[in-house]
From TrEMBL:
Origin species: Subtercola boreus
Organism taxonomic ancestry: Bacteria, Bacillati, Actinomycetota, Actinomycetes, Micrococcales
Record-linked Pfam families: NAD_binding_10
InterPro entries membership: NAD(P)-bd_dom (IPR016040), NAD(P)-bd_dom_sf (IPR036291), NmrA-type_oxidoreductase (IPR052718)
Name of this protein: NAD(P)-dependent oxidoreductase
Domain annotation NAD(P)-binding: ranges: 7-185
Gene3D superfamilies: NAD(P)-binding Rossmann-like Domain, UDP-galactose 4-epimerase, domain 1
Length: 285
């Protein structure tokens, strides 16, 4: 079995490599593919094969996918350009004869108003139409996304957001990467769509309490209106695009877009998902 992992130099892809090796996949059967030549070259220390790819250059994809059985298509990070990039990868995989594509998508991608979902929905639709057998991993939020929040709150003692009473069922990247490795190395996942989320969904007050525990200081949750949140972010010097994204995401959270969707993640990895506090402690350290 030969497995290609795209985004292998990124956080999720790199962890997926680790879990594939831990599950007994021979390093020689893994192709770690990424865009940055230096970072890709560094992965050779794991013993895996490597490939420099560019989603915008189908020729690089064809070379990386040649002879492979399975593709872990870690969604790209170029917002606004991902649909075309993912289509190129799916087309190249089909041409190469890859027998299954595992794609990392967004929660409830086909029915949500989540600001990040449209590109994932379009990719899922293209993947289904391609005729290539697939598994879709709809990853909820990564707890690690709050690394910058942790640093800011450590200085102010305030966690401010316009999420209302909305909840986030985040899990660690480690959890999601392990689930991907399980799906890549075990049978019975063809055609499956997994809604992956943490075991516990937390709201702003819960998160402030967790931050208090991790930081060893009192942290208060300051609920903001979207307008007040916008004004605060602009005052902090953020550009309009970033402000719109952050406030839009909080609005999604307020209406339940990142709430718990299923127990699929803990079922796949065979253990409870990593508590938010544990991930935050690692980040704080």
């Amino acid at each position: 079995m030969s497995i290609v992992v795209t985004g292998a130099t990124g956080h999720l892809g790199r962890l997926a490599l680790t879990h594939l090796l831990a599950r007994g996949v021979a390093a020689s059967d893994i192709v770690a593919a990424g865009r940055n030549p230096e970072k890709v070259d560094a992965l050779k220390s794991l013993g895996v094969r490597t490939a420099v790819i560019d989603f915008a250059d189908p020729a690089t994809l064809a070379a990386a996918f040649e002879g492979a059985d399975t593709l872990l298509l870690v969604s790209g990070s170029d917002l606004g350009g991902r649909v075309e990039q993912h289509r190129n990868a799916i087309d190249a995989a089909k041409t190469a004869g890859i027998s299954r594509i595992v794609y990392t998508s967004a929660p409830r991608a086909d029915s949500t108003d989540l600001i990040l979902a449209p590109e994932h929905k379009a990719t899922e639709e293209y993947l289904r139409a391609s005729g290539v057998p697939f598994t879709i991993l709809r990853n909820n939020w990564y707890t690690e996304n709050y690394a910058s929040t942790l640093a800011q709150v450590a200085g102010t003692g305030v966690y401010a957001a316009s999420t209302g009473e909305g909840r986030v069922a985040s899990a660690s990247r480690e959890d999601y990467a392990e689930a991907a490795a399980v799906v890549l190395t075990t049978d019975g996942h063809e055609g499956a769509v997994y809604e992956l989320s943490g075991d516990t969904a937390w709201n702003g007050s819960d998160f402030a309490a967790t931050l208090s525990e991790v930081l060893g200081r009192a942290v208060a949750f300051e609920p903001l209106t979207p307008d007040a949140h916008t004004a605060a972010l602009r005052a902090a010097g953020l550009d309009d695009g970033t402000v719109g994204f952050v406030v839009g995401l909080d609005a999604n959270i307020a209406t339940g877009a990142l709430d718990k969707s299923s127990d699929d993640l803990s079922a796949l990895i065979g253990r409870p998902t990593t508590p938010v506090a544990d991930t935050l402690r690692t980040l704080a350290a």
